[in-house]
Design goal:
Keywords: Membrane, Transmembrane, Transmembrane helix. The chain has 13 helices and no strands. The protein has 327 residues and is mostly helical. The chain has two domains: 168 residues; 144 residues.
Length: 327
């Protein structure tokens, strides 16, 4: 292992374009904004597929799927635009490690660009063919099913690549993309991401249908607003609660070299804000229906703080792990 690490240069002897602290803040903040809309895009696609399939037997769910589908391409565009800053930041801060991981994952990393472009075309085709293919639902659903299948695969490549850059000592054991999936932490991170996508989408859809300006009766008149509010709040509550399990698995499967007490306290701080958010959500779900949503702003604020803590913890682990490599 020592011989392998000796082959990794400590850094590129060029000055950074900005102070390192500024680049770190930019990386963490821009990544959190980017991943928010990625979560909404992926979670919205999964829920649209689920409700459109249910709509084969009950048309009101087809109407719900249609409404959710209208948000996906918007969130997709924001995810793409906001993905530029974190990509550039990580390239600048961790050039050697990031590019080395890219090279080791090879063609899978390169094919992300055409694959993502293909998925976006499928999303547009699905959205704008809703009326055209309303009498050919199997074909229409199949278009989205392929897009969702791609969305379920793409995170594997990203997570495997980001995970691999942290462990130069493992580079000699890697023989293509598939071998990176056997490294510690890839699968727990993957499920952590998918569950987060559904949690964020549940909260977003609660807000989306709760707006006074939203024409609920015209769009979703077969439902009551409260029924959908409770459904989406329950989705957010259940998936966020499960993150205590998946988040713990992510932490426990992290190689020990990047873990220190600072990281532990950062993650604990995030959990400390998540718990009262869960309590408020449960009170909303089980309370009087006329008062549902009264704590929504508090819930979102608390979970936003939690996410900031977790994003900071993610970077802290990365910095710790790579700092040991440089020594």
């Amino acid at each position: 292992m020592f011989a392998q690490l000796q082959l990794v240069p400590k850094d590129i002897p060029l000055p950074l374009p900005l102070p390192e602290e500024v680049l770190i803040v930019l990386l963490v903040a821009s990544f959190l904004l980017h991943i928010l809309f990625v979560n909404l895009m992926v979670g919205g696609s999964i829920l649209t597929l689920w409700y459109e399939i249910r709509g084969l037997k009950d048309k009101k769910y087809d109407a719900l799927a249609y409404q959710i589908a209208q948000t996906i391409t918007v969130n997709k565009s924001l995810a793409v635009v906001l993905g530029v800053a974190p990509l550039l930041s990580i390239n600048v801060l961790y050039t050697i490690y990031f590019y080395s991981a890219n090279a080791l994952t090879g063609k899978y990393w390169i094919m992300l660009v055409p694959l993502v472009a293909f998925v976006f075309l499928l999303l547009y085709a699905h959205k704008y063919s809703w009326k055209t293919l309303e009498h050919n639902k199997p074909l229409h659903i199949s278009i989205l099913a392929v897009a969702v299948a791609c969305f379920l695969f793409i995170p594997f490549v990203f997570l495997a690549n980001i995970n691999l850059m942290l462990f130069p000592e493992k580079w000699g054991e890697v023989h293509g993309f598939l071998s990176t999936l056997a490294l510690p932490n890839v699968l727990p991170r993957y499920f952590h991401f998918l569950v987060a996508s559904l949690a964020v989408t549940g909260l977003f859809l609660f807000y989306f249908i709760s707006r006074k300006s939203y024409e609920f009766k015209e769009n979703l008149g077969a439902f009551t607003r409260y029924d959908l509010q409770k459904k989406f709040y329950s989705l957010a509550f259940g998936t966020t609660t499960s993150q205590f399990l998946f988040g713990s698995l992510v932490f426990l499967t992290l190689p020990s070299k990047g873990i220190d007490w600072n990281l532990f306290w950062i993650i604990s701080g995030g959990v400390g804000f998540a718990i009262p958010a869960m309590i408020l959500m449960w009170q909303e779900i089980t309370g009087p229906k006329e008062k549902i949503g009264r704590h929504f702003v508090k819930v979102v604020s608390l979970l936003t703080i939690t996410i900031v803590f977790m994003g900071t913890g993610r970077h802290t682990y990365r910095a710790n792990a790579l700092e040991l490599t440089k020594k």
